[in-house]
Design goal:
single chain; alpha+beta; 4-stranded antiparallel beta sheet; 11 helices; elongated
Length: 340
C-alpha cells in the first residue's frame, strides 16, 4: 500500500497579507533599528588600509626553482628543505612578535594627511588615536586614578617594557600584518591606521625594516669574514710599509759601502720585504673575494605593489552594517508576526 504524503504548501500571498496588515509595526521597528544601528556604528573611528607586496630573492638554480614550483603545487616546500638559513621566509611574519622589531617603529616620523599632526608614530598612537566613543567615559575615569610613573627615562628597553609601552606595541601588532605566500614566494604587508598618509608612511617603514633585516641576516656571515680579512689586510699592509721604510733607509745609508755583511743584511731585508709583500697581496685578494661574497649574498627585492595613500576607509562598513541590522530587524519582526 502506497503511503500518501501530504505536502504542506506555504502560501506566500497569505504571508504577505499578514505582514502587510502589520505594516505599522514595521514602520516603528525599522526606523528605530536604523537610528540605533547608525548611532552605534558612527561611534567607531574609521580606518584606512594599504597593502605592499614584496618579492625577495631566494637564490637557487633554475632547476631547483622549477622543482620548487612543481613541489609547491603539491603542498611541499623544497626551498625550506634545501636552505641552509636558520630563518626561512616562512618565519618573516613572526618578526612582528619580536619587541625589538616592533619598537623600532616608535621613532618613525609621521604626518597626517591634513598636516595637523607631525610627531613620532609612538606619540601618534599614544595621544592622537580616536577612541570608540563608548569607551571615552571609562578611559576618563581610569585616568583619574592613574598614577604617573616617576623617573621614567626616554630610553626604552624593548624586552622590558612598562605596561603603557607594551600596550602601544600591542596596538602596532594589531595594525600591521606580514604574510608569506610559499607558493608564489611573495611577502605581503598590510597596514591599518586612522589616517591615510600615516598608513602609507608606516607601510614604507615596515617594508624598509624588513628588507634591512633580511639583508643583514643573509649577509651576516659574509660581512664577518670581510671584516676579518680587512683587519688582516690592514695589519699586513702596515707591516709591509714598516719593513719597506727600514729597507729604504738601510739601502740609502750604505749605498757607497761595499762590505759583504751589509750586502747580506740588505739581501735578508729584501727577502723579508718580499715575503711581507706576498702576504699582503694574498690577503688583499682574499679581502676582495670576501667583499664580492657580501654582494653575492645581498638579496635583491622586487616591489610588486608599493604602498599608496588609500582614498576610501576600509572599515567599519557603516552602510553594510546598517543594512544588515535593518534586514535582521525585518526578519525578527516578521517572525514575531508569524510566530503562530
Amino acid at each position: 500500500m502506497e503511503e500518501k504524503k501530504e505536502l504542506k504548501v506555504i502560501d506566500i500571498i497569505d504571508i504577505a497579507k499578514k505582514l502587510w496588515a502589520k505594516k505599522m509595526l514595521f514602520a516603528k521597528t525599522l526606523p528605530i533599528a536604523f537610528v540605533v544601528s547608525y548611532i552605534y556604528i558612527i561611534g567607531f573611528p574609521r580606518y584606512y588600509t594599504t597593502d605592499i607586496k614584496l618579492a625577495p630573492e631566494l637564490g637557487g638554480t633554475s632547476m631547483s626553482s622549477t622543482l620548487g614550483s612543481l613541489a609547491s603545487s603539491f603542498g611541499f616546500d623544497l626551498d625550506n628543505l634545501q636552505s641552509n638559513d636558520a630563518i626561512t621566509p616562512l618565519l618573516y611574519p613572526d618578526l612582528m612578535e619580536d619587541n625589538g622589531f616592533v619598537t623600532s617603529l616608535f621613532n618613525v616620523q609621521v604626518k597626517s594627511k591634513d598636516g595637523s599632526i607631525k610627531t613620532t608614530y609612538h606619540d601618534y598612537l599614544k595621544k592622537y588615536q580616536k577612541p570608540v566613543i563608548w569607551t571615552v567615559p571609562i578611559d576618563w575615569v581610569k585616568n583619574l586614578f592613574k598614577k604617573e610613573e616617576k623617573g621614567k627615562t626616554s630610553i626604552i628597553d624593548p624586552y622590558n617594557l612598562p605596561k603603557d609601552e607594551d600596550d602601544i606595541a600591542g596596538s602596532i601588532r594589531d595594525k600591521i600584518k606580514i604574510n608569506f605566500d610559499k607558493k608564489t614566494a611573495v611577502i605581503s604587508i598590510s597596514v591599518k591606521d586612522q589616517d591615510a598618509l600615516i598608513c602609507k608612511t608606516i607601510g614604507d617603514s615596515v617594508k624598509t625594516r624588513l628588507q634591512d633585516f633580511i639583508t643583514e641576516y643573509r649577509t651576516s656571515k659574509a660581512r664577518t669574514d670581510y671584516e676579518y680579512y680587512l683587519k688582516l689586510t690592514l695589519d699586513a699592509k702596515q707591516d709591509y710599509e714598516k719593513v719597506r721604510q727600514r729597507y729604504g733607509s738601510m739601502a740609502d745609508a750604505n749605498s757607497k759601502v761595499a762590505l759583504k755583511s751589509i750586502e747580506l743584511k740588505l739581501e735578508d731585508m729584501e727577502n723579508d720585504l718580499q715575503l711581507r709583500f706576498n702576504a699582503y697581496t694574498t690577503l688583499n685578494t682574499q679581502l676582495q673575494a670576501a667583499k664580492a661574497k657580501v654582494q653575492e649574498r645581498t638579496p635583491a627585492f622586487t616591489v610588486i605593489k608599493g604602498a599608496s595613500v588609500p582614498i576610501k576607509p576600509s572599515e567599519p562598513k557603516r552602510m553594510i552594517f546598517v543594512a544588515f541590522m535593518l534586514l535582521l530587524t525585518f526578519a525578527g519582526t516578521s517572525l514575531y508576526i508569524l510566530r503562530k
